[in-house]
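User: Please predict the structure of the protein below. I'd like the answer in structure-token form so I can feed it into my own downstream comparison script.

Assistant: Understood. Taking the following sequence of 344 residues as input:
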Amino acid sequence: MKTRPCTLADIPHVVNLWKACGLTRPWNDPAQDMEMALKHSASTVLIGEFNGAIIASVMAGFDGHRGWLYYVAVRPDLQGNGYGRQIITEGEDWLRHKGCPKILLIIRADNKKVIDLYASLDYVQEPRAMMSKWLIEPPAQNPEAAPSRKLDVTITYLEMTQAPQRPPRPAPVTPKPLSLQRVHNPTVSFYRYLQHTVGDPWLWWERRVMPDEAIAEIVQDPKVELYVLTMGGVPAGFVELDFRAMPDKAEVAYFGLLPEFIGHGLGPYLLEWGIDCAWNRNPAPKRLTVNTCTLDHPKALSGYQRAGFEVVDQIHIQTSDPVAKGHIPKSVRILSPGYPPSRE
């Protein structure tokens, strides 16, 4: 099992893992728990992968006095193979690196199997009374967090394992000159402009909730390439290619057009150009991946398939309404076919 930090793109898969392990509760939104953990430098979520699938997780947090471990999970069919010990050790190492002197756990009293696991790892039970207090109304009791504020989303994962065998698509004829260039070391403000202008109508909220430091760490990484398409000098769209997992894979992390430029033939051209750019390197990736969901443009999935991607997985989730949560401004004209949220 290989371990690495969780990303926002991993959240749906990790939520499914937690549900399979019985770790979720009605009063805790697991996706929101992960979002909060990933936003702060004093907390993290680490995941374990085996054969490309997420099979284990641990959330760790350090309050400056004590460290905590949460959401320790191993896929049920793989439990008993040492993966639990491995992911716990990863959480311990993360806390140790933070200078944490002691780790605390909360385990339900009837979960003897887990208590025995931690005992075998030198954890001891201490005579303490655990008390709690909600600073906000628990979501299960809060009418503002009722199912009417949830979005039903289907996420589709696609990949291709070799470069498409086709000639390059010619640039569309446009009233003003087209230009396509890489943006080296983009500023966070410019990147947010692209992300928000392109993504807000389709409810791209993940990067909106990330702090500037986390955004900069991603987009200014030399293994992440940002290409911007302009028409007459005006930004029309962008494609973001992520090569951090090379040589195993490259990813079309983000791709889209500003609303004013949709419907003029620019999308297929930019997408195919980005695909060719991803493959045209030495060594080439073993596979190129992308994902889309039912909140995206209605033709997004078919567009990726026409470009050469094949569906490899599909999951169904419920996620909080990013407009109601304040991630997307209410003034934005939402184009997503999956909005507004269901009121069932």
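That's the full token string. The longest strand covers residues 150-160.
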